[in-house]
């Protein structure tokens, strides 16, 4: 019953773009996420040179941190502003190109090649376009998608995972009757039913 209060909440792409444009992206962390630090070994499990996916990445500084550790980073966000700010904030040169197969989408890739950010709806992506991943850092993604889209989101994520991939998921616990979200409340039971 916890999620009922929020089940019908829908945010449009415009709503999210507005958050970035107005500086209301309070979910952005200027410093690396403490939970990623804490569980980094779990995500990497001693492996190097992994492909790591950041769904709804915004301008997460952790992308640079993991790239500096030798991993290949792919992110997706609908906000071109956020993606460009990431490269500017990190002082990274990048080039921009269209994405074959997705109308209006752009791919922003660091000149060094190890960070590739897609500007489009996450639902436009597929393993045919971005390949598969050894690790996923899902902080603020599952809890941000519209509650009605969670099954679609989870099945997409599962389709992007290699056999031995690790999925780090951050959710938030609170009384969904008191906050309308996002971030939305996703109980553990739902995480289990979504990802099995």
Would you spell out the secondary-structure blueprint of this structure?
Blueprint: H1 13-21, H2 34-44, E1 51-54, H3 62-68, E2 72-77, H4 80-90, E3 94-98, E4 106-110, E5 115-119, H5 127-130, E6 133-139, H6 150-159, E7 161-170, H7 188-195
Parallel strand pairs: 1-2, 1-6, 2-5, 6-7
Antiparallel strand pairs: 3-4, 4-5
Account of the protein in words:
This protein is α/β, with parallel strands linked by helices. The chain has a single domain (13-23, 32-195), classed as Vaccinia Virus protein VP39 (Rossmann fold, 3-Layer(aba) Sandwich). The protein has helices at 13-21, 34-44, 62-68, 80-90, 127-130, 150-159, 188-195, and strands at residues 51-54, 72-77, 94-98, 106-110, 115-119, 133-139, 161-170. The protein has a seven-stranded mixed beta sheet, with helices on both faces. Strand 3 and strand 4 form a beta hairpin. The protein starts with 12 loop residues before the first helix and ends with a helix.
Provide a quick synopsis of the model.
The protein has helices spanning 13-21, 34-44, 62-68, 80-90, 127-130, 150-159, 188-195; strands spanning 51-54, 72-77, 94-98, 106-110, 115-119, 133-139, 161-170. The protein has 196 residues and is α/β, with parallel strands linked by helices. It has a 7-stranded mixed sheet with strand order 3-4-5-2-1-6-7, with helices on both faces.
Distance between the termini: 20 Å
Q: Look at the structure and give the mean pLDDT.
A: 95
Unreliable stretches: none
CATH class: Alpha Beta
> Total helix count?
7
Number of domain modules: 1
Q: Considering the protein shown, what is the CATH homologous superfamily? A: Vaccinia Virus protein VP39
Task: Let me know the number of strands.
Answer: 7
Shape: globular
| Assembly level | single chain
């Amino acid at each position: 019953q916890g999620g009922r209060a929020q089940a019908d909440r829908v945010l449009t792409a415009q709503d999210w773009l507005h958050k970035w444009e107005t500086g209301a992206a309070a979910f952005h962390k200027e410093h690396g996420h403490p939970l990623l630090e804490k569980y980094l070994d779990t995500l990497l499990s001693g492996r190097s040179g992994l492909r790591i996916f950041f769904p709804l990445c915004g301008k997460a500084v952790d992308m640079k941190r993991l790239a500096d550790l030798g991993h290949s980073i792919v992110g997706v966000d609908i906000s071109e502003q956020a993606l460009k700010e990431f490269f500017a904030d990190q002082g990274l040169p990048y080039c921009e190109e269209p994405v074959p197969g997705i109308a209006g989408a752009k791919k922003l890739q660091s000149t060094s090649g190890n960070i590739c950010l897609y500007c489009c709806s996450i639902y436009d992506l597929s393993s045919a376009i971005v390949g598969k991943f050894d690790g996923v850092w899902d902080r603020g993604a599952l809890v941000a998608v519209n509650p009605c889209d969670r099954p679609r989101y989870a099945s997409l994520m599962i389709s992007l995972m290699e056999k031995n991939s690790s999925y780090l998921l951050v959710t938030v616990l609170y009384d969904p009757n008191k906050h309308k979200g996002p971030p939305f409340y996703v109980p553990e039971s739902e995480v289990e039913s979504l990802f099995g």
